């Protein structure tokens, strides 16, 4: 072969392409086990379009890593031929840690490979000083892991509201916490000794829905998170849009027509000021419904028949529905997921929200799939998304 051809053979471009292809193939194989397991290797090959030999090779590597195992139950294809020994996720060895920092408290959790919460606790903020919050979160994770001696952590996912830069692992700005340029990945990694992955909670929950929820298989998904913080995330073709320095989804200061709530930015009627759970609780206190700051107490009062609590929750859900309608007009997603306390826990609130969206699009809107574990799932799904995108990187050396 001519010497001039050698640079083509040693060029790094094909190796990079091959690496990306292997990573993508590994991802679709493990995702198939997640979605269909226990599942025969031949079925995975049919679902993914990969060769049976490739599927067998990936499954062998996943088994070595402890991510999957052969099922004890033999299966026949339509009752004929040799029985298949299917594979399934191995839930006996690995978990991921999850940390979600909300305004009043931090949730720490352990999730299995199917995104199910196996342990969790809440740590109330004495002060929101970042180093203290992260240190207590690390201590909380250590306590959960100590109580689960048969489990090893593959890594830690961290989620919160505000402006979170995934690539640098930094909370750039969280005004309600008073955080600015907090190097979460560095601090939490040093405290736990584990790989730490960081993202905003709206994007984290899109990934959770994509992997484990009702939005699985949707080609495009919009998620609106309305808690103390109000933000959004948008995913197309299995990719969540982050934008430069992960600033996409910052909708807190979108103007609400007719809004009356003053915002910390100096304007009146910003989306977050109108929809925040702080606003809901303040209005409930003013009406004599509750005397605290926990929005679930408003839900409890409504469940007990308090008509004012019912009205406050329905009105809030309607306002959320108007915001969803505006975002639908701009983005036109196939599926909309809403994390909003009324729609999550009351059918009348979900109906009110969908009514504001409009009859022609109401069926596309559903509440979050994890109403009883939203914050725990948000944290853990950051790490699980990384696992399912690049499962071959989950080596014992990284544990």
UniProtKB/TrEMBL annotation:
Belongs to the ROK (NagC/XylR) family. This is ROK family transcriptional regulator. PANTHER family: BIFUNCTIONAL UDP-N-ACETYLGLUCOSAMINE 2-EPIMERASE_N-ACETYLMANNOSAMINE KINASE (PTHR18964:SF149), ROK (REPRESSOR, ORF, KINASE) FAMILY (PTHR18964). Gene3D superfamilies: 3.30.420.40, Winged helix-like DNA-binding domain superfamily/Winged helix DNA-binding domain. InterPro entries: ATPase_NBD, ROK, WH-like_DNA-bd_sf, WH_DNA-bd_sf. Pfam families: ROK (PF00480).
């Amino acid at each position: 072969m001519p010497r001039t051809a050698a640079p083509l053979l040693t060029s790094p471009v094909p190796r990079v392409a091959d690496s990306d292809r292997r990573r993508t193939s590994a991802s679709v194989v493990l995702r198939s086990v997640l979605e269909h397991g226990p599942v025969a290797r031949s079925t995975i090959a049919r679902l993914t379009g990969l060769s049976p030999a490739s599927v067998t090779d990936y499954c062998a590597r996943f088994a070595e890593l402890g991510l999957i195992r052969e099922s004890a139950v033999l299966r026949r294809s339509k009752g004929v031929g040799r029985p298949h020994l299917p594979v399934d996720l191995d839930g006996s060895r690995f978990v991921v840690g999850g940390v979600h920092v909300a305004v009043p408290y931090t949730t720490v959790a352990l999730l299995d490979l199917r995104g199910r919460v196996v342990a969790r606790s809440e740590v109330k903020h004495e002060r929101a000083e970042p180093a203290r919050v992260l240190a207590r979160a690390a201590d909380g994770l250590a306590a959960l892991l100590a109580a689960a001696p048969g489990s090893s952590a593959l890594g830690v996912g961290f989620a919160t509201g505000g402006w979170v830069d995934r690539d640098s692992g930094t909370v750039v700005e969280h005004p309600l916490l008073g955080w600015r340029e907090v190097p979460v990945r560095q601090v939490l990694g040093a405290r736990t000794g584990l790989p730490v992955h960081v993202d905003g909670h709206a994007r984290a929950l899109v990934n959770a829905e994509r992997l484990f929820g009702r939005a699985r298989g949707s080609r495009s998904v919009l998620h609106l998170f309305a808690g103390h913080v109000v933000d959004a995330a948008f995913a197309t073709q299995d990719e969540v849009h982050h934008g430069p320095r992960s600033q996409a989804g910052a909708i807190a200061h979108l103007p609400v027509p007719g809004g009356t709530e003053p915002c910390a930015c100096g304007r009146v009627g910003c989306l977050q000021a109108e929809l925040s759970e702080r606003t809901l609780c303040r209005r409930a206190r003013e009406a004599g419904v509750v005397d605290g700051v926990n929005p679930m107490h408003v839900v409890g009062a409504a469940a007990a028949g308090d008509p004012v609590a019912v009205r406050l929750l329905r009105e809030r859900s309607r306002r959320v529905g108007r915001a969803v309608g505006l975002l639908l007009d701009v983005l036109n997603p196939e599926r909309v997921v809403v994390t909003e306390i009324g729609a999550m826990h009351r059918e009348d609130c979900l109906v009110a929200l969908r009514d504001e969206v409009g009859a022609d699009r109401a069926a596309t809107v559903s509440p979050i799939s994890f109403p009883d574990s939203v914050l725990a799932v948000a944290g853990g799904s950051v790490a699980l998304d990384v696992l399912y995108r690049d499962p071959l990187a989950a080596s014992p050396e990284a544990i």
